[in-house]
């Protein structure tokens, strides 16, 4: 009877210790952000690197999601004679949910893994240790600019995803199916609120940017300095980021869009 | 001082070493005896369990980040495989500490970087990428980076490991020359006895239990009668340091009766 209790207690302590370490690391990273901002060229280089890494997959996915969303929504709406609402449905789906969430999931898989592997390999190659011995804090020089770069890149990528998705939906709905173009755009214009819908979508993607980039840099920095250690850290980045994004999305949606 | 990464295992056991200013001191010992750990303790990467580490009279406190960074600006370290930044060129690697710690303009940085690269014979390789240089060259670039800020103490972690005979001789010669020309104190961690003895002024020999077995000038250690010192210096496969890892008798393990 004692052993399962002990095991449970040990596991609970491990989880608490892990959460505490994460929180401490996050605070440390935030403390180093001003130093990173004082050297904007480091942050700009990271926005460029992270943004570029994910741009192609984000645009392609946005287009594909736009195509499918328009097609599926049209066949569902036309049954009820509501096909004129297609533009609004597509837009709200993209800017409120699909844009931020799918972008974050793709970001975790593409840029997040790349960040983790890069930092993990720097650790394995003793580059981070060399920096520390040069009296340079790797959190300030390596992690903070990447963290900042990810936070800036994510909302931009999410906006691009939604924009390309809407264009994709336009192509399918207007050009292929024959929905009236004026109707497609005007109902969108009337039904979408810049602050409530687009603004909240951007806030969501900002939060997801913080989550995904933090998980990526944390896993890279804490990775065991071996090939297996870096591989496991990369996998953990995708799993933890994805689950965290989905859970946070539910909470944010409940807070933002519940009447 | 005494140190272990966890309570169950002691890496360095009640050792006392001192390194004289302006001299080249070698720390010799087999793999896993705590040589590299010793360098990390001097750099304040870990805190000692008992005792203290002093740098120029000041106790190194691994928890005092401000003090550590101040002390580390006075020392340079050459890592075993160079630890060069693979996303930067040879030139930018050497310029890195200068850009981070000084307000020098680009012209001044260029002059210093080229002088340091010239000192290690790699001025012509300044624009190469790290992936384009050999292991021996990487070690020399790392050396140029380690001396970029003219440190008072230079620590070399296995500077001869994995090098061909020519590169090894070049590295040894560089360490001695740089020490003599800059007046810095050099600390070499290695298991390459002959190469170290050819350039060092003093040497410590550590045992696999993390104790100091012997210390003295190279000629004194060469003349030592201590079986462990003799085994290590001559590279004998068996002796006080056993060839076999502790195990049950072979006959017992195989279930064979004599």
Describe this structure as you would to a colleague.
The complex is a heterodimer of chains A (259) and B (258). Chain A contains eight helices and no strands. Chain A is mostly helical. Helices cover 90% and strands 0% of the residues of chain A. In chain A, helix 5 crosses helix 7. Chain A starts with a helix and ends with a helix. In chain A, 42% of the residues are buried. Chain B has 258 residues and is an alpha/beta fold. Chain B is built from ten helices and eight strands. In chain B, the strands form two sheets. Chain B has a six-stranded mixed β-sheet with strand order 4-5-6-1-7-8, sandwiched between helices. Chain B has a two-stranded antiparallel ribbon with strand order 2-3. In chain B, a hairpin with a 2-residue loop joins strand 2 and strand 3. In chain B, helix 6 packs parallel to helix 7. Chains A and B meet through helix 4 of A and helix 2 and helix 3 of B.
Spell out the blueprint of helices and strands:
The complex is a heterodimer of chains A (259) and B (258).
Chain A: H1 2-38, H2 40-79, H3 86-124, H4 127-133, H5 138-177, H6 181-191, H7 194-222, H8 227-257
Helix pairs in contact in A: 1-5, 2-3, 2-5, 3-5, 3-6, 3-7, 3-8, 5-7, 7-8
Chain B: E1 24-29, H1 35-42, E2 54-55, E3 58-59, H2 65-72, E4 75-78, H3 90-101, H4 106-119, H5 135-146, E5 153-157, H6 165-182, E6 185-190, H7 193-199, E7 202-206, E8 212-216, H8 218-222, H9 227-234, H10 250-254
Parallel strand pairs in B: 1-6, 1-7, 4-5, 5-6
Antiparallel strand pairs in B: 2-3, 7-8
Helix pairs in contact in B: 3-4, 3-5, 4-5, 6-7
């Amino acid at each position: 009877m004692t052993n399962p209790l002990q095991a449970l207690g040990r596991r609970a302590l491990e989880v608490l210790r892990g959460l505490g370490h994460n929180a401490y690391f996050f605070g440390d990273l935030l403390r180093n952000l001003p130093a990173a901002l004082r050297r904007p060229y480091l942050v700009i280089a990271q926005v460029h690197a992270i943004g570029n890494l994910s741009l192609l997959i984000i645009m392609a996915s946005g287009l594909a999601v736009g195509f499918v969303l328009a097609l599926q929504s049209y066949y569902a709406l036309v049954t009820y004679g509501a096909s004129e609402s297609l533009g609004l449905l597509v837009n709200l789906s993209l800017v409120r949910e699909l844009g931020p969430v799918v972008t974050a999931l793709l970001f975790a898989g593409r840029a997040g893994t790349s960040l983790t592997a890069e930092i993990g390999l720097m650790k394995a190659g003793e580059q981070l240790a060399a920096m520390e011995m040069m009296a340079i804090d790797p959190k300030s020089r390596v992690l903070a600019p990447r963290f900042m770069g990810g936070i800036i890149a994510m909302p931009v990528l999410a906006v691009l995803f939604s924009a390309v998705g809407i264009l994709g939906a336009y192509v399918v709905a207007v050009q292929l199916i024959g929905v009236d173009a004026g109707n497609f755009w005007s109902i969108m214009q009337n039904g979408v609120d810049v602050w409530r819908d687009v603004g909240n979508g951007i806030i969501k993607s900002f939060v997801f940017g913080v989550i995904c980039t933090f998980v990526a840099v944390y896993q890279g920095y804490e990775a065991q300095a071996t090939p297996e250690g870096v591989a496991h850290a990369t996998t953990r980045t995708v799993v933890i980021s994805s689950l965290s994004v989905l859970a946070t999305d539910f909470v944010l949606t409940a807070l933002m869009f519940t009447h | 001082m005494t140190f272990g990464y966890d309570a169950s295992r002691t890496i360095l056991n009640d050792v006392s070493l001192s390194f004289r200013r302006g001299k080249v001191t070698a720390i010799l010992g087999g793999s896993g005896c705590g040589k590299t750990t010793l360098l990390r303790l001097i750099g304040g990467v870990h805190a000692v369990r008992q005792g203290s580490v002093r740098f120029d009279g000041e106790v190194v406190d691994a928890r005092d980040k401000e003090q550590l960074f101040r002390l580390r600006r006075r020392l340079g370290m050459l890592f075993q495989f160079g630890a060069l930044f693979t996303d930067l060129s040879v030139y930018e690697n050497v310029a890195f500490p200068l850009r981070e710690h000084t307000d020098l303009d680009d012209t001044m940085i260029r002059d210093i970087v080229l002088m340091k690269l010239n000192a290690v014979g790699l001025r012509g390789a300044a624009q190469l990428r790290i992936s384009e240089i050999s292991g021996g060259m990487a070690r020399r670039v790392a050396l140029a980076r380690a001396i970029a800020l003219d440190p008072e103490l230079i620590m070399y972690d296995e500077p001869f490991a994995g090098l061909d005979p020519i590169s090894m001789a070049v590295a040894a010669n560089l360490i001695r020359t740089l020490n003599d020309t800059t007046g810095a104190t050099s600390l070499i961690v290695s298991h390459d006895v002959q190469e170290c003895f050819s350039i060092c002024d003093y040497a410590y020999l550590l045992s696999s239990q993390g104790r100091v077995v012997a210390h003295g000038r190279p000629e004194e250690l060469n003349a030592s009668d201590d079986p462990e010192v003799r085994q290590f210096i001559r590279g004998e496969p068996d002796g006080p340091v056993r060839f076999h890892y502790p195990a049950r008798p072979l006959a017992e393990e195989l279930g064979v009766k004599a």
